[in-house]
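Appendix C. Worked example: Glutamyl-tRNA(Gln) amidotransferase subunit A
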Amino acid sequence: MSDLTTLDAAELGRRLTAGELSSVELTRAYLDRITAADEVLGAYLHVDAEAALARAGEIDAARSAGDELGPLAGLPVALKDVFVTEGVPTTSGSKILEGWRPPYDATVAARLKDAGTVLLGKTNMDEFAMGSSTENSAYRPTRNPWDPDRIPGGSSGGSSAAVAGGLAPWALGTDTGGSIRQPAAVTGLVGHKPTYGAVSRYGLIAFSSSLDQAGPMARTVLDAAVLHEAIGGHDPRDSTSIDAPVPVVAKAAREGAHGDLAGLRVGVVRELGGDGHSDGYDAGVLARVRETVELLEGMGAEVREVSCPSFDLALPAYYLIAPSEASSNLARFDGMRFGLRAGDDGSHDLDEVMSLTREQGFGPEVKRRIILGTYALSAGYYEAYYGQAQKVRTLITRDFTAAFDGVDVLVSPTSPTVAWPIGARVDDPLAMYAADLCTLPASLAGLPAISVPCGLSDGLPVGFQVMAPALADDRCYRVAAAVEAALDTTRGHRLLDELPTRTAAA
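Step 2, the predicted output written as structure tokens:
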């Protein structure tokens, strides 16, 4: 593999700014990497090499002309296919949007464009972000660069595979119940879910509006922080956007890398893999997390166990709230306004066209969740299901509030297990949903949380999750950077160079 595609974005940005590297040269290296490996990995749904190289050429010309450019100018980036991009196909991993080219950019896409980044392409995902393995994509599954026979996590599995496999220096994903953090964990990346409302949702195709959040996926904590700062901030077009300054997370990442956590109070969540709550967790995952907690103590942190009893109810609460909101959000896909239209031959009435479009356009998992959500919202069941789930959500938020009265951050495994074999859970929805056991509480409470690699179990990556109070994203980055520096997990992984040979022989 080209040496360029193994470097972190911060170093690539330095070389671009110093004139040691051109954006065209860098973009071509990633496009070559995509050509070599993506037939096996399935990380991308759309790549336009011509447009990417033209954009890179524009940035190079501006730099040569002496124009003042930002630190991200000329750096390639990949976007999960849930962000609308003007003139670029956006499908949300679904056949119902196949071939749709939006007339506008999502706010985060526009901000990255304004920063001078080069769009490599749109990454694969579970359809409408519903899944934990990227096997629910309507187009093809995505594979884990660590082992192509295993899942890359989901629903942002295309973004995780692209970055872990050297097909992009960094990428954006979305996290509704763990869809940035869990794929980051199982592919050895850093993935951060910002405080809800801290990054605009305008132009993000909605799954669950009270939970969806965009965020960065990268090889290093600093890269993730820099990308976070580029996309964050208030957006008046998003009614849920927080009118507050972007947290200074890059500074926190740099400070954390020094490894001084003196005085930091860390709470180990008993209900997330702690003592007496190890069922369903890989022994190797728990061992790596315990070792990482000991590292934090060695850097001066004060560690104690914390109980958050309502966290045990996060899974059922989430799978009532999120599908309920999905059943409403996905009603817009009716075959009338955009995307797929089935049965449009004059022999069907309006209702029949809508029914045929949804039957052909939505995949099995999406239909499952629409049905579940519609039932939970139906007359006679609303209070018993959706209403009760919202009460549990309040209890979870209160558990966080009580915990943060005594500690500064909470920690846990990111995923209970390492990446599992492709196909192992496709016929067992409950086993698939359990992949998000550790990530769901922070999503339901709208709090920031980050996953950082903390070692290997059975030769596969393990993620360490750090959660913080609302708008305290900097704490997540500080602790994650300290873990990263202590474990020296900042430069990809051993399979990067082997992947083209392995995949060609597969």
